[in-house]
Amino acid sequence: MHQSILIYKRFLYLKLALLAIITAIVAYSIHAPLGAPNGGTWLGYTLGGLSAFLVVWLMWFGIRKRRYAPGNVNLEAWLSAHVYFGLTLIILATLHTGFQFGLNVHTLAYALMILVILSGMFGVYSYIRYPREMTENRDGVTLDEMMLQIADLDRQCREIAMKLSEEINATVFEASRNTRVGGGLFRQLAGHDSRCPTTAALGQVEALAATTIGEDAAHVRRLVSLLSRECELLRRARKDVRFQALMQVWLFIHVPLSFALFAALIAHVFAVFFYW
Amino acid sequence: MEVENDIICLGRGTDCHVYLPDPRVPLLHSQIDFRADAPYIAAASFSFDLRVNGVVTPSARLQPGDEINVGPYDIVVVENPTGKDLALTVELIRPLGDEFAELTARSRTDLTTVGLGKRGWSWLLFVMTFILTLALPLFAAMIKPPDSREARPPGVSDKALPDMAEKMRRAVSEINWLSTADSLWISGNISGPHRHFAEDCGSCHQKPFVQVRDAACLGCHAGIEHHADPQAFKTATFEEVKCARCHKEHNGIEPIVLTDQAFCVSCHGALDQREPKTTLHNATNFGTDHPEFRPSVVVDAASATLSRITIGSNPRPTENSNLKFPHSKHLDKKGTKHPRKGTVNLTCADCHKPEPGGVGMLPIRMEEHCHDCHELKFEPTAKDRRLPHGQPREAVEQMREFYAKMALHGGLEDPRAPDSVRRRRRPGTGLSRDESAASLDWALTKAAEVATETIGKRACGTCHFVTPPSVDGDGIWDIAPVFLADRWMPKGKFDHAKHKQMACVDCHVAPRSETAHDVLLPGIKTCQGCHGGEEAADRVPSTCIACHDFHQRGLPAMKAVPRQTTGSVGTTGN
């Protein structure tokens, strides 16, 4: 029985994370350092050290998830902890700054951390929402099956169009040559193709249908019906690609930025102790 | 397949005899007919070329072996079998291909096929960030010369950079962004007073990985004083405490004075337990828990002795400055008599003038502030003769000489004077010896009389405590020396200029004061009317440091500084 990582072990890691957050907030409230709160007070050093440890531990997940031998703690637990403790970092790191921000490497590390967390939050959202939508969209077929059907419809349309005028033949032939599902990053995320040749072909053929008479009329009607089905399939296929892309794209931000954060974090700690 | 017709049509149209079912072929591509028993092929489509044996031609005669190319089809003319006019083989040499495979090849349905990929971007961003935030600033930090402001023991020369580093530093110093790349490491705004050397991180951070040392501060702030007498109060020496413990930089433009009330209260909240010998009372909050003001007033002017009294105590505290001065008389609303101007209305500002800067008031000087009315005249007939102030011996002598001259001059209409003084002197006549002695006698007696009147009562005695000369003394009067306290509360900073909007009498109830014994300072309640503690919301928030200094002027230096080498930056006053 599938259990969401958010619910894992009856919200165990959520509870631990909340405990950490509340402790940090209470400590920050009652700690009254001389001068302004900053990362250099004893509480600042504690929160900073904890946050740095957490960043490294969170990045370790990338290594753990690629180890297929079963460890002491299973991967589900790791991921659940990863999500919740990642979220605590927002509070811990912000309190560590003492709300002092500026144009420097320290705030850069903080900003990168926030971006990483935000992208991760989108990732969690996408993993919760999109699989169901994807399943509904697929309606029992896989993407490959949809593509097979599209290819077959292509062939059928071509065969019919061959019997018709050069204009229709050329249009349909071109459509079958150039129609594609997905594309670059933005086309995949968009979920539709505004320059789809098949859609254009359908429009043209429909317009011509009005003026076609006789035997050709039946062919044209059949062609219109086939093209419509193909357009519908293309729409579903592109939607499928979109969901897939959304569930992948956040990781392309999450992981590289976390490495930028890692470098900035090293610089931050180094700078703090170099110019102590 | 056998076909019989006058014209053989080739194309993708279903009515074509040579049916070429491929969308790349036009509906009707060409036609073959017989002319004079020979087969000829002619193009029928405007948009599609007829190619025979590789040559584009509108028509051609066909012979066995000829190759006609129609799109993806190759049509070869072969030997006629018997009874037939023409034989052709049709071969599809370029099939359309697997639509599905082609569709899949054209489509990109996975983000992993797009762009750099996670690993590529991760490496790129990591390396870029590392260079920008660690390598470049570190390079900038290493090529800076060591700071020359450090307080160093004598004999240690200024550290110079090794050749290579110096060359790099010069090369790079033109490129401002590179030589100041370590400014990316600044953790907060530098305080205003320190910004003139802010670009040189090494002026304070002299050794990497070592916290800012006292020597760095003492380069400019040498001589900064103790907080309390280090001999008497051992807990107030702050011996082990670094300057940087209290003075934290990189927290904004405000000067880095520690203003937190809690810091002072940590000792002064219960100072009597920490230092039993202290004479200070405990204090925690100006608005709610601060002792009454205890100014240092003069208790004995002759020995210039001061003592602290508590405002508002019983009996009323008094100051014994040896001066007689009633403010009430001088500030009388009905006006004060002036020797020449009739009546004048004096105000506080007529005598009390602020010093430059306005913090305190200039000292009162008799010659400046009092002399205009208190002219120290002694002889009504000599309106322009005034006694000197502050020199009783000189004053007595002047009077003696005046009356002696008058006696010599003669012609004085005073029934009590001897004849030799009263008699008008004729030119050429002199005084006999007896007459001279009588005249001198009279002069000295007269001088003594006048002295008693002026010094004793009218001129000097008005303001001073006078002692007449002893019977067998030298006849010189003794004026008790006046000693005024310079500042009643020397350890509390009060800036009159900041309180310009108030009236003098709001704090100093001078108009009602009839004697100089009065200590005309307000009690703390007056100040608490506007000022509160650090957290005050309905008062001006005033921490301890608003009025009190931590480092006390006059005490010995807090930190031992090695003697500076000559030529380095001198110490600044504090």
Describe this entry's structure for a reader.
Chain A has helices at 8-30, 42-64, 75-97, 105-138, 143-162, 166-178, 185-190, 197-209, 215-274. Chain A is an all-alpha fold and 276 residues long. In chain A, helix 2 packs antiparallel against helix 3 and helix 8 runs antiparallel to helix 9 (215-274). Chain B is α+β, with helices and mostly antiparallel strands and 574 residues long. Chain B has four domains: 7-105, Sandwich (Tumour Suppressor Smad4); 118-258 and 550-574, no CATH class; 296-364 and 484-522, no CATH class; 392-479, no CATH class. Chain B is 25% helix and 11% strand. Chain B has helices at residues 99-106, 117-142, 163-173, 176-179, 214-221, 243-246, 261-268, 271-274, 327-330, 348-351, 366-370, 392-409, 419-422, 433-458, 504-507, 524-528; strands at 7-11, 18-19, 30-35, 38-43, 51-52, 55-56, 59-61, 67-70, 73-78, 87-92, 296-300, 305-308, 336-338, 342-344, 466-467, 478-479, 531-532, 540-541. In chain B, strand 5 (51-52) and strand 6 form a beta hairpin. The longest helix of chain B is centred in the first third of the chain and has 26 residues, at 117-142. Chain B is rod-shaped. Residues 148-158 and 564-574 of chain B have low confidence and may be disordered.
Largest interface: A-B, 67 and 64 residues
> Taking Cα atoms only, what radius of gyration of chain B do you get, to the nearest Å?
56 Å
Shape summary of chain B: rod-shaped
Work out the count of structural domains of chain A. Answer: 2
Largest sheet of chain B: 5 strands, mixed
What share of the residues of chain A lie within helices?
A: over 70%
Radius of gyration of chain A: 28 Å
Helix content of chain B: 10-25%
- Percentage of residues in strands of chain A: under 5%
